[in-house]
Amino acid sequence: MTGLILKDILVMRRTIRTYVLFLAFYSLLAVFDIFPLSTVTAVTELIIMMLPLSAFSFDEYAKWDRYAAALPLGRRAVVGARYCFALLMAATATLFCLLLAVLLSIVQGADSLMGSLLSLAFCLGYGLLVADILLPLCYKVGVERARPYMYVVIFVPAILLFGAYQLGLISAETFAALETLPEATLLAGAGLMALLPLLGMGASYWISCRFLEGKEF
Amino acid sequence: MTNSIEIHGLCKSYGDFALDRVDLTLPGGAIMGLIGENGAGKTTTIKCILNLIRRDAGEITLMGHDNRAEERLAKAEIGVVMDECFFHDTLRPRDIDRILAPVYSHWDSALFGSYLDKFRLPEKKFVKEFSRGMKMKLSLAAALAHRPRLLILDEATAGLDPVVRDEILDEFLGFICDEDHAILLSSHITSDLEKVADYITYLHQGRVVLSEAKDVILDSYGRAAGTAGQLARVDPADLVRVRRGSFGWEGLVADRAAFQRKYRDLLVEKTTLEDIMLFIGKGEAQ
User: Fold this and answer.
1) Residue A110 sits at the chain B interface (C-beta within 8 Å)
2) Kind plus residue range of the DSSP H or E element containing B7
Protein backbone atom coordinates (compact mmCIF):
# COMPACT_ATOMS: atom_id res chain seq x y z
CA MET A 1 0.00 0.00 0.00
CA THR A 2 2.89 2.36 0.74
CA GLY A 3 3.95 2.07 -2.90
CA LEU A 4 0.58 3.35 -4.03
CA ILE A 5 0.58 6.25 -1.54
CA LEU A 6 4.05 7.14 -2.74
CA LYS A 7 2.78 6.93 -6.30
CA ASP A 8 0.11 9.57 -5.61
CA ILE A 9 2.68 11.88 -4.05
CA LEU A 10 5.19 11.42 -6.87
CA VAL A 11 2.60 11.80 -9.62
CA MET A 12 1.39 15.07 -8.10
CA ARG A 13 4.64 16.48 -6.80
CA ARG A 14 4.47 19.45 -9.16
CA THR A 15 0.87 20.20 -8.20
CA ILE A 16 1.72 19.88 -4.51
CA ARG A 17 4.75 22.15 -4.95
CA THR A 18 2.58 24.81 -6.64
CA TYR A 19 0.01 24.65 -3.85
CA VAL A 20 2.73 24.92 -1.20
CA LEU A 21 4.08 28.09 -2.84
CA PHE A 22 0.58 29.50 -3.19
CA LEU A 23 -0.28 28.81 0.45
CA ALA A 24 3.10 30.09 1.67
CA PHE A 25 2.37 33.38 -0.08
CA TYR A 26 -1.09 33.75 1.48
CA SER A 27 0.20 32.64 4.87
CA LEU A 28 2.73 35.44 4.70
CA LEU A 29 -0.10 37.86 3.95
CA ALA A 30 -1.95 36.49 6.98
CA VAL A 31 1.13 36.93 9.19
CA PHE A 32 1.29 40.58 8.14
CA ASP A 33 -2.47 40.86 8.78
CA ILE A 34 -3.24 41.65 5.14
CA PHE A 35 -5.35 38.51 4.71
CA PRO A 36 -7.54 36.79 7.37
CA LEU A 37 -6.15 33.50 8.67
CA SER A 38 -9.60 31.86 8.56
CA THR A 39 -9.64 32.28 4.76
CA VAL A 40 -6.14 30.80 4.43
CA THR A 41 -7.26 27.86 6.60
CA ALA A 42 -10.40 27.29 4.51
CA VAL A 43 -8.51 27.48 1.23
CA THR A 44 -5.76 25.17 2.54
CA GLU A 45 -8.19 22.48 3.64
CA LEU A 46 -10.21 22.75 0.45
CA ILE A 47 -7.16 22.54 -1.81
CA ILE A 48 -5.75 19.65 0.13
CA MET A 49 -9.01 17.73 -0.10
CA MET A 50 -9.04 18.30 -3.85
CA LEU A 51 -5.74 16.46 -4.21
CA PRO A 52 -7.22 12.93 -3.91
CA LEU A 53 -9.68 13.90 -6.66
CA SER A 54 -6.80 15.09 -8.82
CA ALA A 55 -5.15 11.73 -8.14
CA PHE A 56 -8.21 10.05 -9.67
CA SER A 57 -7.87 12.27 -12.75
CA PHE A 58 -4.20 11.38 -13.19
CA ASP A 59 -4.97 7.68 -12.75
CA GLU A 60 -7.84 7.83 -15.20
CA TYR A 61 -5.64 9.51 -17.82
CA ALA A 62 -2.91 6.87 -17.40
CA LYS A 63 -5.48 4.03 -17.10
CA TRP A 64 -3.61 3.12 -13.95
CA ASP A 65 -6.57 1.33 -12.32
CA ARG A 66 -6.28 -1.58 -14.76
CA TYR A 67 -2.60 -1.95 -13.92
CA ALA A 68 -3.22 -1.58 -10.18
CA ALA A 69 -5.86 -4.33 -10.35
CA ALA A 70 -3.23 -6.63 -11.88
CA LEU A 71 -0.81 -6.01 -8.98
CA PRO A 72 -0.63 -8.50 -6.09
CA LEU A 73 -2.25 -6.09 -3.62
CA GLY A 74 -5.97 -6.66 -3.83
CA ARG A 75 -8.53 -4.00 -4.58
CA ARG A 76 -9.06 -3.08 -0.93
CA ALA A 77 -5.41 -2.05 -0.69
CA VAL A 78 -5.84 0.17 -3.77
CA VAL A 79 -8.77 1.94 -2.09
CA GLY A 80 -6.96 1.99 1.25
CA ALA A 81 -3.96 3.71 -0.31
CA ARG A 82 -6.16 6.48 -1.73
CA TYR A 83 -7.83 7.06 1.66
CA CYS A 84 -4.44 7.05 3.40
CA PHE A 85 -3.25 9.64 0.89
CA ALA A 86 -6.34 11.79 1.60
CA LEU A 87 -5.77 11.52 5.36
CA LEU A 88 -2.08 12.25 5.00
CA MET A 89 -2.86 15.40 3.04
CA ALA A 90 -5.52 16.44 5.58
CA ALA A 91 -3.12 15.84 8.47
CA THR A 92 -0.38 17.85 6.73
CA ALA A 93 -2.75 20.75 6.01
CA THR A 94 -4.08 20.73 9.57
CA LEU A 95 -0.60 20.71 11.04
CA PHE A 96 0.41 23.56 8.75
CA CYS A 97 -2.65 25.63 9.69
CA LEU A 98 -2.20 24.83 13.38
CA LEU A 99 1.40 26.01 13.34
CA LEU A 100 0.35 29.12 11.49
CA ALA A 101 -2.42 29.79 14.04
CA VAL A 102 0.01 29.44 16.93
CA LEU A 103 2.49 31.72 15.19
CA LEU A 104 -0.19 34.32 14.59
CA SER A 105 -1.46 34.10 18.15
CA ILE A 106 2.05 34.91 19.31
CA VAL A 107 2.30 37.78 16.87
CA GLN A 108 -1.26 39.10 17.28
CA GLY A 109 -2.12 38.06 20.85
CA ALA A 110 -3.59 34.97 22.56
CA ASP A 111 -7.25 35.85 21.78
CA SER A 112 -6.85 35.05 18.11
CA LEU A 113 -5.87 31.41 18.76
CA MET A 114 -9.33 30.31 19.86
CA GLY A 115 -10.99 31.66 16.73
CA SER A 116 -8.29 30.12 14.54
CA LEU A 117 -8.71 26.71 16.17
CA LEU A 118 -12.47 26.84 15.70
CA SER A 119 -12.22 27.75 12.04
CA LEU A 120 -9.53 25.09 11.55
CA ALA A 121 -11.71 22.38 13.10
CA PHE A 122 -14.69 23.48 11.02
CA CYS A 123 -12.66 23.56 7.77
CA LEU A 124 -11.04 20.20 8.49
CA GLY A 125 -14.42 18.63 9.20
CA TYR A 126 -15.88 20.12 6.04
CA GLY A 127 -12.91 18.97 3.95
CA LEU A 128 -13.18 15.44 5.33
CA LEU A 129 -16.93 15.43 4.69
CA VAL A 130 -16.27 16.38 1.06
CA ALA A 131 -13.80 13.48 0.80
CA ASP A 132 -16.22 11.06 2.53
CA ILE A 133 -18.83 11.74 -0.12
CA LEU A 134 -16.70 12.23 -3.21
CA LEU A 135 -14.21 9.36 -2.95
CA PRO A 136 -16.88 6.62 -3.25
CA LEU A 137 -18.50 8.60 -6.06
CA CYS A 138 -15.20 8.66 -7.95
CA TYR A 139 -14.96 4.88 -7.64
CA LYS A 140 -18.56 4.48 -8.75
CA VAL A 141 -18.87 6.88 -11.69
CA GLY A 142 -15.34 8.11 -12.35
CA VAL A 143 -13.84 11.46 -11.51
CA GLU A 144 -15.27 13.38 -14.47
CA ARG A 145 -18.85 12.38 -13.75
CA ALA A 146 -18.26 12.92 -10.02
CA ARG A 147 -17.11 16.51 -10.55
CA PRO A 148 -20.62 18.10 -10.67
CA TYR A 149 -21.37 16.37 -7.36
CA MET A 150 -18.25 18.01 -5.96
CA TYR A 151 -19.70 21.46 -6.62
CA VAL A 152 -22.96 20.35 -5.02
CA VAL A 153 -21.19 19.07 -1.91
CA ILE A 154 -19.06 22.21 -1.62
CA PHE A 155 -21.59 24.89 -2.42
CA VAL A 156 -24.97 23.54 -1.27
CA PRO A 157 -24.22 23.99 2.48
CA ALA A 158 -23.14 27.59 1.79
CA ILE A 159 -26.29 28.24 -0.28
CA LEU A 160 -28.47 26.67 2.45
CA LEU A 161 -26.84 28.85 5.08
CA PHE A 162 -27.34 31.93 2.95
CA GLY A 163 -30.96 30.92 2.25
CA ALA A 164 -31.66 30.36 5.94
CA TYR A 165 -30.17 33.78 6.67
CA GLN A 166 -32.31 35.43 3.98
CA LEU A 167 -35.46 33.68 5.24
CA GLY A 168 -34.73 34.87 8.75
CA LEU A 169 -34.28 31.35 10.10
CA ILE A 170 -30.89 32.40 11.38
CA SER A 171 -29.55 35.88 12.03
CA ALA A 172 -26.45 37.74 13.10
CA GLU A 173 -27.67 37.25 16.66
CA THR A 174 -27.49 33.47 16.19
CA PHE A 175 -23.78 33.74 15.47
CA ALA A 176 -23.35 36.30 18.23
CA ALA A 177 -25.02 33.85 20.64
CA LEU A 178 -22.39 31.27 19.74
CA GLU A 179 -19.73 33.61 21.03
CA THR A 180 -21.37 33.64 24.44
CA LEU A 181 -20.86 29.90 24.83
CA PRO A 182 -17.99 28.75 27.06
CA GLU A 183 -14.70 28.14 25.22
CA ALA A 184 -14.63 24.48 26.24
CA THR A 185 -18.10 23.93 24.75
CA LEU A 186 -17.12 25.66 21.53
CA LEU A 187 -13.91 23.66 21.22
CA ALA A 188 -15.71 20.38 21.96
CA GLY A 189 -18.33 21.21 19.32
CA ALA A 190 -15.68 22.10 16.77
CA GLY A 191 -13.72 18.96 17.62
CA LEU A 192 -16.84 16.90 17.10
CA MET A 193 -17.37 18.58 13.72
CA ALA A 194 -13.92 17.36 12.67
CA LEU A 195 -14.21 13.97 14.36
CA LEU A 196 -17.52 12.86 12.88
CA PRO A 197 -16.41 13.10 9.21
CA LEU A 198 -13.15 11.43 10.25
CA LEU A 199 -15.12 8.49 11.63
CA GLY A 200 -17.31 8.63 8.53
CA MET A 201 -14.22 7.80 6.49
CA GLY A 202 -14.59 4.20 7.66
CA ALA A 203 -18.03 3.93 6.10
CA SER A 204 -16.87 5.84 3.05
CA TYR A 205 -13.91 3.41 2.63
CA TRP A 206 -16.23 0.42 2.95
CA ILE A 207 -18.55 1.79 0.25
CA SER A 208 -15.59 2.58 -2.04
CA CYS A 209 -14.29 -0.99 -1.60
CA ARG A 210 -17.69 -2.36 -2.58
CA PHE A 211 -17.74 -0.18 -5.70
CA LEU A 212 -14.21 -1.11 -6.76
CA GLU A 213 -14.71 -4.82 -6.09
CA GLY A 214 -17.72 -4.77 -8.41
CA LYS A 215 -15.80 -3.01 -11.17
CA GLU A 216 -14.52 -4.74 -14.31
CA PHE A 217 -11.42 -3.47 -16.06
CA MET B 1 5.85 -30.16 -13.14
CA THR B 2 3.02 -27.67 -12.49
CA ASN B 3 1.72 -25.93 -15.58
CA SER B 4 2.14 -22.17 -15.65
CA ILE B 5 -1.42 -21.61 -16.85
CA GLU B 6 -4.35 -24.01 -16.86
CA ILE B 7 -7.73 -22.86 -18.05
CA HIS B 8 -10.71 -25.19 -18.15
CA GLY B 9 -14.15 -24.34 -19.53
CA LEU B 10 -13.75 -20.57 -19.31
CA CYS B 11 -16.96 -18.75 -20.21
CA LYS B 12 -17.65 -15.03 -20.17
CA SER B 13 -20.60 -13.40 -21.86
CA TYR B 14 -21.06 -9.75 -22.78
CA GLY B 15 -24.38 -10.28 -24.53
CA ASP B 16 -23.21 -9.69 -28.09
CA PHE B 17 -19.96 -11.59 -27.52
CA ALA B 18 -19.04 -14.60 -25.45
CA LEU B 19 -15.98 -16.61 -24.59
CA ASP B 20 -17.20 -20.14 -24.98
CA ARG B 21 -15.63 -22.98 -22.99
CA VAL B 22 -12.03 -21.89 -23.52
CA ASP B 23 -9.44 -24.49 -22.54
CA LEU B 24 -5.76 -23.67 -22.52
CA THR B 25 -2.64 -25.20 -20.97
CA LEU B 26 0.74 -23.51 -20.92
CA PRO B 27 3.58 -25.66 -19.58
CA GLY B 28 6.68 -24.19 -17.95
CA GLY B 29 9.64 -23.27 -20.13
CA ALA B 30 7.41 -22.36 -23.06
CA ILE B 31 5.97 -19.41 -24.92
CA MET B 32 2.38 -19.60 -26.05
CA GLY B 33 1.15 -17.27 -28.76
CA LEU B 34 -2.47 -16.27 -28.48
CA ILE B 35 -3.79 -15.28 -31.88
CA GLY B 36 -7.14 -14.26 -33.28
CA GLU B 37 -8.92 -11.41 -35.01
CA ASN B 38 -9.87 -8.22 -33.20
CA GLY B 39 -12.73 -9.07 -30.86
CA ALA B 40 -11.98 -12.79 -30.91
CA GLY B 41 -11.58 -12.86 -27.12
CA LYS B 42 -7.82 -12.66 -26.57
CA THR B 43 -7.92 -9.65 -24.25
CA THR B 44 -11.04 -10.99 -22.51
CA THR B 45 -9.17 -14.25 -21.84
CA ILE B 46 -6.19 -12.33 -20.43
CA LYS B 47 -8.48 -10.16 -18.30
CA CYS B 48 -10.09 -13.33 -16.90
CA ILE B 49 -6.63 -14.76 -16.15
CA LEU B 50 -5.72 -11.58 -14.26
CA ASN B 51 -9.14 -11.49 -12.58
CA LEU B 52 -9.80 -8.02 -13.97
CA ILE B 53 -13.26 -9.18 -15.01
CA ARG B 54 -15.67 -11.71 -13.52
CA ARG B 55 -15.95 -14.97 -15.42
CA ASP B 56 -19.28 -16.75 -15.78
CA ALA B 57 -17.83 -20.25 -15.56
CA GLY B 58 -14.60 -22.18 -15.65
CA GLU B 59 -11.43 -22.59 -13.64
CA ILE B 60 -8.09 -20.84 -13.96
CA THR B 61 -4.93 -21.80 -12.14
CA LEU B 62 -1.63 -19.93 -12.39
CA MET B 63 1.45 -21.84 -11.28
CA GLY B 64 -0.93 -24.10 -9.37
CA HIS B 65 -2.71 -21.22 -7.59
CA ASP B 66 -6.39 -20.58 -8.18
CA ASN B 67 -6.50 -17.10 -9.72
CA ARG B 68 -9.38 -15.98 -7.48
CA ALA B 69 -8.97 -17.87 -4.19
CA GLU B 70 -5.20 -17.31 -4.17
CA GLU B 71 -5.13 -14.15 -6.23
CA ARG B 72 -2.27 -12.40 -4.44
CA LEU B 73 -0.04 -15.49 -4.44
CA ALA B 74 -0.68 -15.99 -8.13
CA LYS B 75 -0.16 -12.34 -9.05
CA ALA B 76 3.06 -12.10 -7.06
CA GLU B 77 4.59 -14.45 -9.61
CA ILE B 78 3.26 -12.75 -12.70
CA GLY B 79 4.64 -9.90 -14.78
CA VAL B 80 2.11 -8.09 -16.93
CA VAL B 81 2.60 -5.91 -20.00
CA MET B 82 -0.51 -4.65 -21.72
CA ASP B 83 -0.96 -2.92 -25.06
CA GLU B 84 -0.14 0.46 -23.52
CA CYS B 85 2.05 1.92 -20.82
CA PHE B 86 0.14 2.55 -17.60
CA PHE B 87 2.78 4.70 -15.94
CA HIS B 88 1.85 8.35 -15.49
CA ASP B 89 3.54 10.92 -17.71
CA THR B 90 4.86 12.73 -14.64
CA LEU B 91 6.80 9.71 -13.38
CA ARG B 92 10.42 8.79 -14.07
CA PRO B 93 11.79 5.25 -14.22
CA ARG B 94 13.46 5.71 -10.84
CA ASP B 95 10.05 6.72 -9.40
CA ILE B 96 8.57 3.49 -10.73
CA ASP B 97 11.31 1.61 -8.90
CA ARG B 98 10.34 3.36 -5.64
CA ILE B 99 6.62 2.72 -6.22
CA LEU B 100 6.84 -0.96 -7.12
CA ALA B 101 9.52 -1.96 -4.59
CA PRO B 102 7.02 -2.10 -1.69
CA VAL B 103 4.41 -3.78 -3.92
CA TYR B 104 6.43 -6.91 -4.74
CA SER B 105 8.23 -8.82 -1.99
CA HIS B 106 10.84 -9.99 -4.52
CA TRP B 107 11.37 -6.64 -6.23
CA ASP B 108 15.00 -6.25 -7.22
CA SER B 109 15.99 -2.61 -7.74
CA ALA B 110 19.39 -3.61 -9.09
CA LEU B 111 17.74 -5.86 -11.66
CA PHE B 112 15.34 -3.07 -12.63
CA GLY B 113 18.32 -0.75 -13.04
CA SER B 114 20.12 -3.29 -15.19
CA TYR B 115 17.07 -3.58 -17.47
CA LEU B 116 16.97 0.22 -17.76
CA ASP B 117 20.61 0.13 -18.82
CA LYS B 118 20.05 -2.78 -21.17
CA PHE B 119 17.09 -1.06 -22.82
CA ARG B 120 18.92 2.28 -22.81
CA LEU B 121 16.20 4.01 -20.78
CA PRO B 122 17.29 7.17 -18.96
CA GLU B 123 16.15 6.82 -15.35
CA LYS B 124 15.76 10.55 -14.76
CA LYS B 125 13.63 11.28 -17.82
CA PHE B 126 9.86 11.64 -17.51
CA VAL B 127 7.64 8.96 -19.07
CA LYS B 128 5.96 11.65 -21.22
CA GLU B 129 9.28 12.15 -23.01
CA PHE B 130 9.54 8.46 -23.95
CA SER B 131 8.68 7.04 -27.38
CA ARG B 132 6.18 4.18 -27.62
CA GLY B 133 9.03 1.70 -27.92
CA MET B 134 10.71 3.11 -24.81
CA LYS B 135 7.43 2.98 -22.89
CA MET B 136 6.93 -0.66 -23.77
CA LYS B 137 10.50 -1.45 -22.76
CA LEU B 138 9.91 0.37 -19.48
CA SER B 139 6.75 -1.69 -18.91
CA LEU B 140 8.73 -4.84 -19.64
CA ALA B 141 11.52 -3.84 -17.24
CA ALA B 142 8.88 -3.23 -14.54
CA ALA B 143 7.25 -6.58 -15.31
CA LEU B 144 10.55 -8.46 -15.04
CA ALA B 145 12.18 -6.78 -12.02
CA HIS B 146 10.36 -8.84 -9.41
CA ARG B 147 11.60 -12.06 -11.03
CA PRO B 148 8.20 -13.40 -12.11
CA ARG B 149 7.70 -16.98 -13.26
CA LEU B 150 5.03 -16.07 -15.76
CA LEU B 151 4.86 -13.16 -18.18
CA ILE B 152 1.52 -12.17 -19.65
CA LEU B 153 1.67 -9.81 -22.59
CA ASP B 154 -1.33 -8.41 -24.40
CA GLU B 155 -0.36 -6.91 -27.76
CA ALA B 156 2.78 -5.63 -26.09
CA THR B 157 4.75 -5.49 -29.34
CA ALA B 158 2.02 -3.84 -31.43
CA GLY B 159 3.10 -0.62 -33.12
CA LEU B 160 6.79 -1.15 -32.43
CA ASP B 161 9.44 -1.07 -35.11
CA PRO B 162 11.16 -4.37 -36.06
CA VAL B 163 14.39 -3.44 -34.23
CA VAL B 164 12.65 -2.85 -30.88
CA ARG B 165 10.44 -5.89 -31.42
CA ASP B 166 13.47 -8.04 -32.08
CA GLU B 167 15.14 -6.74 -28.90
CA ILE B 168 12.04 -7.59 -26.87
CA LEU B 169 11.66 -11.02 -28.47
CA ASP B 170 15.29 -11.78 -27.54
CA GLU B 171 14.43 -10.88 -23.97
CA PHE B 172 11.52 -13.32 -24.05
CA LEU B 173 13.77 -16.11 -25.29
CA GLY B 174 16.22 -15.35 -22.49
CA PHE B 175 13.40 -15.37 -19.95
CA ILE B 176 12.17 -18.87 -20.80
CA CYS B 177 15.64 -20.41 -20.63
CA ASP B 178 14.57 -21.22 -17.08
CA GLU B 179 12.15 -24.13 -17.43
CA ASP B 180 10.11 -22.75 -14.55
CA HIS B 181 9.28 -19.65 -16.59
CA ALA B 182 6.61 -19.23 -19.23
CA ILE B 183 5.10 -16.52 -21.42
CA LEU B 184 1.60 -16.01 -22.73
CA LEU B 185 1.88 -13.59 -25.62
CA SER B 186 -1.16 -12.23 -27.39
CA SER B 187 -0.22 -10.73 -30.74
CA HIS B 188 -1.41 -9.99 -34.24
CA ILE B 189 2.14 -10.12 -35.50
CA THR B 190 2.23 -13.79 -36.42
CA SER B 191 5.78 -13.56 -37.79
CA ASP B 192 6.96 -12.75 -34.24
CA LEU B 193 5.14 -15.78 -32.91
CA GLU B 194 6.63 -17.98 -35.62
CA LYS B 195 10.03 -16.84 -34.32
CA VAL B 196 9.56 -17.38 -30.60
CA ALA B 197 6.38 -19.29 -29.73
CA ASP B 198 6.37 -22.96 -28.79
CA TYR B 199 2.59 -23.25 -28.74
CA ILE B 200 -0.16 -21.45 -30.57
CA THR B 201 -3.72 -21.00 -29.43
CA TYR B 202 -6.08 -19.53 -31.96
CA LEU B 203 -9.27 -17.92 -30.73
CA HIS B 204 -12.05 -17.31 -33.22
CA GLN B 205 -15.35 -15.74 -32.19
CA GLY B 206 -14.73 -16.60 -28.56
CA ARG B 207 -13.81 -20.23 -29.15
CA VAL B 208 -10.49 -22.05 -29.29
CA VAL B 209 -10.31 -23.39 -32.82
CA LEU B 210 -6.70 -24.47 -32.63
CA SER B 211 -4.31 -25.09 -29.74
CA GLU B 212 -1.21 -27.01 -30.60
CA ALA B 213 2.58 -26.93 -30.65
CA LYS B 214 3.65 -24.37 -33.27
CA ASP B 215 5.94 -26.82 -35.07
CA VAL B 216 3.15 -29.38 -35.31
CA ILE B 217 0.85 -26.76 -36.80
CA LEU B 218 3.38 -25.53 -39.34
CA ASP B 219 4.47 -29.10 -40.23
CA SER B 220 0.98 -30.51 -40.66
CA TYR B 221 -1.19 -27.67 -41.95
CA GLY B 222 -1.02 -26.80 -45.61
CA ARG B 223 -2.56 -24.68 -48.32
CA ALA B 224 -4.06 -26.54 -51.26
CA ALA B 225 -5.14 -24.88 -54.47
CA GLY B 226 -6.85 -25.91 -57.66
CA THR B 227 -9.55 -25.25 -60.22
CA ALA B 228 -13.26 -25.27 -59.52
CA GLY B 229 -13.50 -28.67 -61.21
CA GLN B 230 -10.81 -30.12 -58.93
CA LEU B 231 -12.62 -28.79 -55.87
CA ALA B 232 -15.68 -30.84 -56.77
CA ARG B 233 -13.57 -34.01 -56.41
CA VAL B 234 -12.23 -33.08 -52.95
CA ASP B 235 -13.95 -34.62 -49.96
CA PRO B 236 -15.29 -31.62 -47.90
CA ALA B 237 -13.99 -33.33 -44.73
CA ASP B 238 -10.42 -32.93 -46.04
CA LEU B 239 -10.62 -29.12 -46.14
CA VAL B 240 -10.80 -27.02 -42.97
CA ARG B 241 -11.76 -23.87 -44.87
CA VAL B 242 -12.02 -22.84 -48.52
CA ARG B 243 -11.69 -19.51 -50.28
CA ARG B 244 -13.07 -19.31 -53.79
CA GLY B 245 -11.77 -16.85 -56.36
CA SER B 246 -12.35 -16.14 -60.04
CA PHE B 247 -9.41 -18.37 -61.02
CA GLY B 248 -10.13 -21.30 -58.72
CA TRP B 249 -9.93 -21.97 -55.02
CA GLU B 250 -7.55 -22.21 -52.11
CA GLY B 251 -8.14 -24.43 -49.13
CA LEU B 252 -6.64 -25.00 -45.69
CA VAL B 253 -5.81 -28.62 -44.98
CA ALA B 254 -5.07 -29.97 -41.50
CA ASP B 255 -2.84 -32.86 -42.64
CA ARG B 256 -0.72 -31.74 -45.56
CA ALA B 257 1.04 -35.06 -46.16
CA ALA B 258 -2.15 -37.13 -46.06
CA PHE B 259 -3.88 -34.67 -48.37
CA GLN B 260 -1.03 -34.81 -50.86
CA ARG B 261 -1.10 -38.61 -50.86
CA LYS B 262 -4.85 -38.61 -51.48
CA TYR B 263 -4.91 -35.87 -54.13
CA ARG B 264 -1.65 -36.22 -56.06
CA ASP B 265 -2.70 -33.79 -58.81
CA LEU B 266 -3.34 -30.93 -56.41
CA LEU B 267 -0.69 -28.50 -55.27
CA VAL B 268 -0.24 -28.40 -51.46
CA GLU B 269 2.19 -25.96 -49.90
CA LYS B 270 3.41 -25.19 -46.42
CA THR B 271 1.38 -22.55 -44.69
CA THR B 272 1.95 -19.75 -42.20
CA LEU B 273 0.08 -18.74 -39.07
CA GLU B 274 -1.19 -15.69 -40.95
CA ASP B 275 -2.59 -17.92 -43.70
CA ILE B 276 -4.33 -20.07 -41.12
CA MET B 277 -5.83 -16.95 -39.52
CA LEU B 278 -6.98 -15.66 -42.90
CA PHE B 279 -8.52 -18.98 -43.89
CA ILE B 280 -10.38 -19.41 -40.65
CA GLY B 281 -11.34 -15.76 -40.39
CA LYS B 282 -12.38 -15.21 -44.00
CA GLY B 283 -12.82 -18.66 -45.50
CA GLU B 284 -15.88 -20.82 -45.54
CA ALA B 285 -16.49 -24.41 -44.54
CA GLN B 286 -16.61 -26.70 -47.55
Assistant:
1) no
2) strand B5-13
